Amino acid sequence: MARCKVYKKFENKGGMGYYDEMRRIYLDYAAATPPDTRALKVMNDTSKKFYGNPSSLHLEGQEAKKSLENARGIIAGTISAHPNEIIFTSGATEANNMAIRGVVSMARERGIKNPHIIISAIEHPSILEVAEALQKEGVSVSRLSVDHRGTVNAKELRKLINENTVLVSVMYANNEIGTVEPIRDIAKEIRHARKTNNSSYPYFHTDGAQAANYLDLNVLKLGVDLMTISSGKTYGPRGIGALFVRRGIILQPLLQGGEHESGRRAGTEGVALAVGFAEALILAEKIKTKEYARVKKLRDNLAEKILKKIPDCVINGDIENGLPNILNISVAGCDSEALVIYLDAIGIAVSGKSSCKSSDRSPSHVIMALGGNDSGTIRFSLGRNTKKEDIARVAQELPRIIALLRACHTQSDQV
After folding, report:
1. Element (H, E) at 377
2. Could you tell me the CATH number of the domain that includes residue 264?
3. Distance from C-alpha of 302 to C-alpha of 391, rounded to nearest angstrom
4. Which end of the chain is more exposed for a tag (fewer CB within 10 A), N or C?
């Protein structure tokens, strides 16, 4: 990064590294949540007590199996599902892949030669890139557009669904801008299409990875057929997630090599990870209502201060009806990567876009879908450890950083 004159002046005053000895402020909970100590404890206890392979017939294996199935039952109960509707995966990315590829492969096996799927324009890369890969394999893909707040129009589905549509995948809440989609309305349109076409298709999948801490996960109320959830986004251990698959839906497995997960996902299950995941979900459910109100108040306070102190700044997404912990802003005259780096240098961790695409210099597909400009876009995502003083410090430091970057930008334009 080129060091302009203003930057050097800032650096000489101790700007870079000035807060090295102060508590760092982590505002990237949408990318990863720190595991709850209570979830870590039950994981550690499980690792010591139930170390057997849950597929083994001996006592150690059966004890591990019992622990695994207890965790499965807890997770199922949390989302109002049956235990045999839960498939453990390595995380949300695998669950999303499993949902889309599994449905498409099974549809082809059932005689639908040219399957069609519908996804929203702002899905996570683990949906978008799978859809793009399937498109090269002859699958027809339609993209449901969003409005300037990132919300899909459920009525538009009627125009897109045809007799070959086997799956609709629309995320519950967006990871970059926090917009919550009208899942129940979408489910209603899909039921209408099934009735009209006299078919069990299309199935409805939603990526609920970002929703678990704040929104209702009841799959019966939502009306979804498949739903992805993630431990690493709910203060549980990383390396495990789950896919809810409604009874009666058969997926073609992604992995071969064993009859694990009732033949739906090969690979020895991580018992301790599953137990930690279940514990994390229990804890999230207990504090969901209180935590929603707490982080929303902090987020709204940050948004108010930013808009007041920083000119030419806009909020992306639907802050009124979105997730309470996500604030995505675009600042004119700044570069996203520079903003992230400078904030990190003074002890504030944020993201420019989805962490899965952070090393990619291309614009955020989410912001572009809103009709916005990706330049100078950053995401603040709050969590359980976020405090009032953290918000106050960010609100104090951000205008200073932006003024610096804008000055650098002006100088570079004059050269």
Report:
1. strand 377-381
2. 3.40.640.10
3. 6
4. C
Torsion of CA 19, 20, 24, 26, to 10 degrees: 100
Annotated active-site residue in 313, 334, 356, 408: 356
Predicted confidence at residue 285, as pLDDT, reads 96
Give the per-residue pLDDT at 22: 67
Beta strands per DSSP E along 71-188: 86-89, 116-120, 140-144, 165-169
Are 140 and 117 a contacting pair, CB within 8 Å? Answer: yes
Count of the separate structural domains present in the chain = 2
Residues 234, 301 share a domain: no
Distance CA 218, CA 134 (A): 30
At residue 33's C-alpha, the angle toward residues 351 and 65, to 5°, is 140
Are 37 and 276 a contacting pair, CB within 8 Å? no
**Residue 177, both tokens:** 């801008």
pLDDT at 38 over 70: yes
User: Is 334 considered catalytic here?
Assistant: no
**Rounded Cα–Cα distance for residues 408 and 125 (Å):** 33
How many helices (DSSP H) and strands (DSSP E) are in the chain? 13, 12
- CA atoms of 385 and 145, how far apart (whole Å): 35
